[in-house]
Design goal:
By secondary structure, this protein is of the alpha/beta class. The chain has 5 helices and 7 strands.
Length: 120
C-alpha cells in the first residue's frame, strides 16, 4: 500500500495543506492539465498531478472524490485555491519535478495510471 506520505518522499514534495490526509492510500494517478481528461479517466483513490493552479482543479477533484493534488514544476497555487482545498479536505503537495517526471517516479514506485474511461 502506498500512502500520500510516501508520495512526499518519492517526489521530494512539500505539503501545502491537508496534513491530516497523509496516511490515506493512493491506488492510481493521473497527470493532466486538461480537467476534461481527468473527468474522463480518473477513478477512486486516485491522485492528480497538474501544473494548473486555478480553482477549477479543486472543483474537478471534488467531483471525483480525489483526496490529493500534486502541483508540478514548482508551482504554488494562490491562497484562494488552497483555502478551497482546505474546505474540501483535499491534501495539496508541490514538487519541483515536471508532470512527466513526477508521473514516471510514481509509476516506478508502483502506482499505476488510469486507463479505463469513466464514461464522463
Amino acid at each position: 500500500m502506498i500512502t500520500i506520505r510516501d508520495l512526499i518522499k518519492i517526489l521530494d514534495a512539500k505539503v501545502l495543506c491537508g496534513e491530516e490526509k497523509l496516511d490515506e492510500e493512493v491506488r492510481s494517478a493521473c497527470g493532466s492539465d486538461l480537467m476534461s481528461d481527468v473527468l474522463a479517466f480518473v477513478k477512486d483513490k486516485s491522485l492528480l498531478i497538474t501544473g494548473l493552479t486555478n480553482v477549477h482543479v479543486m472543483r474537478t477533484a471534488e467531483m471525483l472524490d480525489i483526496h490529493c493534488i500534486i502541483f508540478a514544476r514548482g508551482k504554488i497555487p494562490p491562497e484562494d485555491v488552497l483555502e478551497e482545498a482546505k474546505e474540501l479536505g483535499i491534501c495539496v503537495l508541490a514538487t519541483e519535478h515536471t508532470t512527466y517526471v513526477a508521473c514516471g517516479l510514481l509509476y516506478g514506485a508502483g502506482i499505476p495510471g488510469t486507463s479505463k474511461r469513466t464514461g464522463a
